[in-house]
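Aim 2, interim progress: modelling of the uridine-diphosphate-N-acetylglucosamine-bound target.
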Amino acid sequence: MAYLEIAGGRPLYGEITVQGSKNAALPILAACILGEGPCEIENCPQIQDVEDTLSILRMLGCRAERSGHTVFVDAARLERYSIYGAEAIRIRSSILFLGALLGRIGKAVLPYPGGCAIGSRPIDLHLKALETLGAQFSAQQDTCFSDSRAETNEREAPFTGQCRICARAPELHGGSIFFAMPSVGATENAILAAVCADGTTVIENAAMEPEIAELCDFLKLRGATISWEEERTIRVTGTKRLSPVRYRLHADRIVAGNYLLAAATCGGCVRMRNLPFGLLDAPLAILRAMGMTIEEDGTVRAGLPLTAVEEVTTAPYPGFPTDLQSPMMAALCVARGNSRIRETVFENRFLTARQLQKMGARIETEKNLARIEGLWGNGQLCGTSVTAPDLRGGAALVQAASAAAGRTRIYGYEYIARGYEDICRDYRNMGAEIYLRE
Ligand code: UD1
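Predicted structure of the complex, ligand included:
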């Protein structure tokens, strides 16, 4: 079982380059199947979630290849519409192939998606939005004799007995979609289907995360007609042809925010190339209030002690991102004074608190509120064995371990590899002592 070993307790000094955005890469790779021409995606992070997505593309009959950080996808030969196997269950974003496949060939069969265990993660908003555009769904138990198996590419696939989503949309048409809550994935699915539908779709109370703007930019470069009407309203007019394109992904704002918080937790001075300033307004405002200096060239200085924050509340963009909630918790553990974190996006996202407590953190959680007593002047984090509960929680533990006295072992490395190209490389570039043990 692979684990990370970290000898912590020193400040971070060095220079790192922020990798390309995971949450933009995943919907854009799904969007490559809309239209036939080859697409080239540059600055595509070398992470497990992207590799799983490339496997899904190949399963559908696409050519999907990587050369360093550039990925080529040619969907000219896409003729299959059934997705199965460990990749699809592992990643939450496999659900994005629902909208994309309906848009491309009007049919899709796929398992209920997986992803991090950070809450119940239903898909009702995805299904309702696609129904508005003309899709029909049935749930089906995967059996070796099912119709879809006989009809699709699954004859060779192992049968799982799991429940799968079967979708059909002989004619996709425009429609009015209103989301009860601004779901990132459901907004992306609606856009992917609407781009190929007949007529115009208006999506209200849409999520407006920067990764959705990137998906729209990518599709617009391919010839789609998409506009943002008001703050949370997106208008998509369907088009019959999308052209080949080369697109460069932006830097990953969550990875950047995590490394900013690592510098905050350990102290020191780090220069970050590609720091996506414009996408980090809410976290940067809090980090500055905690005492960090962040310069325009990406140099961040963290003098200790960090100042506690009365309350950090996670919220859809442009609010404080839920994906930085665990890294923020790790930083507040070593601050001077008491802080609170209120999680409003996912109901089960305090699992990292238990692991931080094992390292000596003083955290109490009650429903969606965490109270953190900062250890500055009153104790310290100490190395021990912990387990990553999810992707961002795992990254938060690496951050805490780098600040802790002594050695820490972090199990569950596979979660971290889903979203970080090489967390050891990045931390070593900041001067940390960190090893991946197999
Ligand atoms: C995406 C991000 C993830 C991030 C999250 C919130 C990707 C690949 N993942 O996940 O990193 O943490 O946005 O910023 O981009 N919900 C429903 N019904 C639905 C869909 C969602 O009730 O059909 C709820 C969820 O349970 C959750 C909230 O809506 O409470 C937000 O989830 P959503 O924005 O959909 O997250 P993801 O797209 O899964």
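The chain has a mean pLDDT of 93. The longest strand covers residues 3-8.
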